[in-house]
Amino acid sequence: MVQFTVILSLLLATGKALAFPQYGSLAGLSERELEDILPRLHAVKPPPPPGPLNDTSTKLVNNPAHPFLPQRNGDMRGPCPGLNTLASHGYLPRNGIATPAQIINAVQEGFNMGNDLAVFVTYAAFLVDGNQVTNLLSIGGKSSLTGPDPPKPAIVGGLDTHAVFEGDASMTRGDAFFGDNHSFKENQFDEFIAFSNKFGGGKYNLTVASEFRWQRIQESTATNPNFSFISPRYFTAYAESTFPITFFVDGRNEDGALSLDVARGFFQDSRMPNGFFRANQSIGLDIIGSLIDFIFEPHPIQPGGNQGRVNSYTVDPNSANFSQFCQLYQDFVNNTVKGLYPNPQGVLRDNLNTNLGFFFSPLQGSGCPQVFPFGQ
Ligand code: HEM
Ligand SMILES: *[C@@H]1O[C@H](CO)[C@@H](O)[C@H](O)[C@H]1NC(C)=O
Ligand SMILES: *[C@@H]1O[C@H](CO)[C@@H](O)[C@H](O)[C@H]1NC(C)=O
Ligand SMILES: *[C@@H]1O[C@H](CO)[C@@H](O)[C@H](O)[C@H]1NC(C)=O
Ligand SMILES: *[C@@H]1O[C@H](CO)[C@@H](O)[C@H](O)[C@H]1NC(C)=O
Ligand SMILES: *[C@@H]1O[C@H](CO)[C@@H](O)[C@H](O)[C@H]1NC(C)=O
Ligand SMILES: *[C@@H]1O[C@H](CO)[C@@H](O)[C@H](O)[C@H]1NC(C)=O
Ligand SMILES: *[C@@H]1O[C@H](CO)[C@@H](O)[C@H](O)[C@H]1NC(C)=O
């Protein structure tokens, strides 16, 4: 009986480890689980991130080398219309599983995202949602993981994983509280259209971005008892409101306004319009920062959240705000990343440290001190 139990538990452990996908995040796993899984992963020494584009001019990016192809069974797509589109046009692997370097190259080449922003956002997401040992990240979705234990969402969620990067009050995606945090929602896009008609003369521009961001905050306050709007989500929500203007508008267009059929193509279908040209210059942290200021100013709500019931939004003085960029960085590392990996060892610790260094690299010279939660 004892022997049978030992064999059975070995089989179960093996089954789980065998079923564990190479891109699954190791965050939050017990030491026992890590012991099972780590030997079966293909460990990689993380290569440094790619540098900026040499040629940052606008050009045709929906081109014969990058045709739109519909999603195949098993391809991963998630909450980010930018990355979904890059996968559907083959700038990223079409299955939606990528390395940080592939993501940085794709957002630069396909959309002309600036190197500092691309590196910062990619490593933020990769540290919390990617596999630090294999150097792979899923841009969303669940794997077909079938183990004896029900899979933890945090293991297989990729970018869908809630509250570490993905968060509430998105423009076209629902709050995780309502059960689905990543699918396109027609009723929210209808509001996007209504606001574009009301404030943008039928297009999404910065005025619409500001009003619609505020509307989505008010809606989550009124409907989601669990609404959370603190750093890092506080920052990404405002940044993402600027992206349709900076990245989804054709680079030959001078008016900074996005037409609604083009918007639907990106948000719903992960598809660039025919003949699409990328932005006419690299869009990095400085440009996005000034656009965020424009969106924030008319409705300057401080970070906070509801208190377990609707309409109970309370400011959280411990969360970083737009005056506290270094605290955004430090809290993300000290609390979010360290919280997911309380005591990493071996290759996991080494790779975490390497990736934390890459994450900090765009802030070199910014005056923000680097922090080292796992030693140096
Ligand atoms: C650099 C790597 C990137 C990563 C890791 C990333 C990740 C994400 C994630 C996790 C979300 C979901 C946040 C949420 O709504 O809860 C998101 C949203 C969004 N992303 Fe990205 N993203 C990246 C680049 C881009 C690019 C290049 C674009 C535009 C071309 C883009 C456009 C957007 C937009 C518009 C949203 C908001 C969706 C909505 O609110 O409905 N992202 N991104
Ligand atoms: C950019 O130019 C440098 C120097 O000429 C070269 O080493 C590098 O490979 C180029 N990068 C790309 C992406 O073409
Ligand atoms: C977010 O969506 C994913 C995919 O449906 C799911 O696994 C995860 O549990 C969701 N997160 C929350 C907190 O509901
Ligand atoms: C609501 O928030 C609590 C505390 O943050 C969390 O434990 C719980 O999973 C959340 N529930 C849902 C459905 O998002
Ligand atoms: C957005 O469009 C509306 C309507 O054309 C216009 O009044 C407003 O000034 C525009 N906003 C910006 C920031 O250009
Ligand atoms: C890019 O477009 C902006 C307006 O959208 C314009 O101010 C700028 O001059 C353009 N830059 C180049 C290099 O064409
Ligand atoms: C950030 O919070 C501090 C108080 O903690 C406040 O004085 C400051 O105005 C806030 N900055 C912004 C941009 O909201
Ligand atoms: C982050 O942790 C380091 C120690 O690892 C500490 O020196 C630093 O003050 C912490 N920063 C914040 C903002 O908590």
Question: Could you explain the architecture of this structure?
Answer:
- There is one protein chain.
- The protein is mainly alpha-helical.
- The chain is built from 13 helices and 7 strands.
- It has helices at 2-19, 31-37, 81-88, 100-111, 115-129, 153-156, 186-200, 206-223, 233-247, 260-269, 285-296, 325-340, 346-360; strands at residues 97-98, 137-138, 203-204, 228-229, 258-259, 304-305, 314-315.
- The protein has one domain (2-363): Chloroperoxidase, CATH 1.10.489.10.
- It is globular and about 55 Å long.
- Helix content is 44%, strand content 4%.
- The strands form 3 sheets. The chain has a 3-stranded antiparallel β-sheet with strand order 4-6-7, with no helix packed on it.
- A hairpin with an 8-residue loop joins strand 6 and strand 7.
- Helix 3 crosses helix 10 and helix 8 (206-223) packs across helix 11 (285-296).
- Residues 142, 153, 157, 160, 162, 176, 180-182 line the site of one 2-acetamido-2-deoxy-beta-D-glucopyranose.
- This is Heme haloperoxidase family profile domain-containing protein.
- InterPro entries: Chloroperoxidase, Chloroperoxidase-like_sf.
- Residues 1-19 form the signal peptide.
